[in-house]
Amino acid sequence: QVQLVQSGGGSVQAGGSLRLSCAAPGITFSLYAMSWYRQAPGKQRELVATITTSGSANYADFVKGRFTISRDNAKKAVYLQMNSLKPEDTAVYYCFVKLRVDYWGRGTQVTVSS
């Protein structure tokens, strides 16, 4: 059974940093690209960052230069380091992987106060 187990997040003031983690113990982790999405209240879920199997990263324009996605294949985990956080980064963040079907983490709240 595929489970994406998220941790991290919380509340921080603008300019601060947070780190999100997502573990995927039930899959052959190294074979799959991993992504982070977010959903703010009243808005659609949006892609934040993706890391390929080779470790190449792609970012949404609104986080470029501030967020870093990384992966540890030995730990079967993906991370999102978020720096220089802004109030508009406030959202629930989700880990995502696409196998034959889509799998989502349960989400973790990130709140950035001004």
Number of helices: 0
The largest sheet, given as strand count, sense and whether it forms a barrel, is:
7 strands, mixed
List how many beta strands DSSP finds.
11
What would you report as the Rg, rounded to the nearest angstrom?
Answer: 13 Å
| Overall spatial form | globular
Structural class: mainly beta
Q: What is the CA-CA span between the terminal residues?
A: 40 Å
Strand coverage percent: over 45%
Outline of the structure:
This protein has 114 residues and is an all-beta fold. Helix content is 0%, strand content 51%.
Structural write-up:
This protein has 114 residues and is mainly beta. It contains no helices and 11 strands. The chain is globular, with a radius of gyration of 13 Å. The N and C termini lie far apart (40 Å).
How is this fold's topology laid out?
Elements lengths: L4 E4 L1 E4 L4 E6 L10 E6 L6 E6 L5 E3 L7 E6 L4 E6 L8 E8 L3 E3 L3 E6 L1
Parallel strand pairs: 2-11
Antiparallel strand pairs: 1-3, 3-8, 4-5, 4-9, 5-6, 7-8, 9-10, 9-11
Which tags fit this structure?
114 residues, mainly beta, seven-stranded mixed beta sheet, four-stranded antiparallel beta sheet, 0% helix
